[in-house]
């Protein structure tokens, strides 16, 4: 470990005393060292300056702290907007919401992402067709927001099991639709969350179909955020053919199990249509870009909440030129939004449309750069989100150029159009001409959004008001808004970086492999253990660089072994984190049943002794309390029984076990294989009364 270097080792008095001691050597004629002497006053002043310099030199400035974090591959996290799920009910007609529509929890805005299709159709009936029989759940009789519980594919999903959703009216074709499945997550062992890029392979294959006039047709999914009903999420799809009603008058979608590796049958607590995912932010400026062909007219749909103000730019090379007014024709559409017919000229590559909230915002977010190095500007809009901030600069060539946001200017060249944004101060900073270009011309924000951060984590049933919805339509959030946070301070970032150093992405020790297995995305791990390779048989051929991990999946009371879905995911996780040359093997549990024969003499007049003894034996063999491969000690079971106050004597105790790799030693202990896990198969007792 490097020694800690301190530059601030002298106090003011020590510095002054050292200086006074040097007077006689430097200038012998100076003999008055009293505080009234002007020379001593000057020495006190210079000593004070030196003490301040030492103090500041000994500190690590903010700039250096950011550089140290960069070396560690860490940077302070930006402010994050909270997200919430908003349910819209009571629609009489289908409704298409524009992009970035606002809902409100009091004065706190929440914004939709993209255009949202709302439908009048309701999920009326959920039907399960399995080997266990047919089950129906009438959702129209369930109050909105009230949780229900049903297993869509029964308790043991098998190939061919069907789960169907019946709607009281047909869903529209040609638009992206979504359903939200709320999956029960109250098991003793939680399922690890599944994120984007985790490499998770689903534990089931479901085929979705829609009932049409031509019978059941395959339904193409755009997104499955539930990952085959493993976690709560959206199912997004687009109907290509109109729905047809069944004999019961309902309009049906269904999921058919093609392959099942579920360790626990999915349980749904709700199915919701017209459920919107909203973010706690308010977009003040935004843009959209469309491809263009020179000399042709393109049609652009301006279905954006900020469509009241637009600026049309034509891409030419690496910049944009503002289009003349006679090149743009605005038309009103039936849904109330605007459409633009844009005629582009020579050299056009694309058309970019800029939107902003109000005419005043255009003046508020515009600055004039003078071309000098080290420029900085305050943006007078509190709560700006750095990740939603983009700039355009109208440079002396008459073109608008895109400037890119960076963390710092360390890697910037004089030709790079880069800027930095300090979120806490709301300040834009530009380069000095050597590290980043110095802007000259008009600056404007082409994308800008503000958020409340942590204050956006509102409680349930707080979001009520929304856009101009029809009469009778109700809006609410059944669940808490979550995920909102303020920007991370440097101190908080250092703590996170320190914790990160203790969690390597590579697995080296047995504990590392166990941690990776326990956190495998999408799996429910009851128990796992890295076992010594020496305990494996020679035919396994693992070698000295081998690692064996025994994994027990959660089974909800059943003695479940690893299936193909688990093997694929576990090997995928371990292959990504193992060192080069390390061979990894995943072992499924070998459940070893133990039969107990006991002859016990009970103390006289003791009530409930037999039941207590049975419970003691069952508790001793409780599977969750055992470690893989741990021997079953005869003396331990004997001691548990002999120490009971209701037992006079344990006159006979026998344990029998059968299985691959099972043996017994002279002490009567049952020796298990490295992946062995015991359970009580049977217990027989011979009761004797005490004398």
Question: What secondary-structure arrangement, pairings included, does this model have?
Answer:
Blueprint (H helix, E strand, L loop, with lengths): L11 H10 L1 H4 L11 H20 L4 H10 L11 E7 L5 E3 L4 E4 L2 E5 L3 E3 L4 E8 L2 E6 L23 E6 L8 E8 L20 E9 L2 E4 L2 E4 L8 E6 L12 E10 L7 E6 L1 E5 L2 E10 L5 E6 L7 E7 L2 E4 L5 E5 L5 E6 L6 E7 L2 H6 L1 E5 L5 E3 L11 E5 L5 E6 L12 E5 L4 E4 L9 E11 L23 E3 L13 H12 L8 H9 L6 E7 L14 E8 L10 H14 L5 E5 L2 E13 L6 H12 L13 H9 L4 E11 L5 E2 L5 E2 L4 E14 L2
Parallel strand pairs: 27-28, 33-34, 35-39
Antiparallel strand pairs: 1-16, 1-31, 2-5, 3-4, 4-16, 6-7, 6-8, 8-14, 9-13, 9-15, 10-11, 10-14, 12-13, 17-23, 17-30, 18-22, 19-20, 19-23, 21-22, 24-30, 25-29, 26-27, 26-30, 28-29, 32-33, 35-36, 37-38
What is the straight-line distance between the termini?
71 Å
Structural class: alpha+beta
Share of residues in helices: 10-25%
| Major sheet attributes | 11 strands, mixed
Number of self-contained structural domains: 6
What is the fold named in CATH at topology level of the largest domain? Jelly Rolls
Tally of helical runs: 10
Per CATH, which architecture of the largest domain? Sandwich
Name the beta content range.
Answer: 35-45%
What top-tier CATH class of the largest domain fits best? Mainly Beta
Radius of gyration, CA atoms, in whole angstroms:
36 Å
Low-confidence sequence ranges: none
Shape: flat
What do the pLDDT scores average to?
87
Number of strands: 39
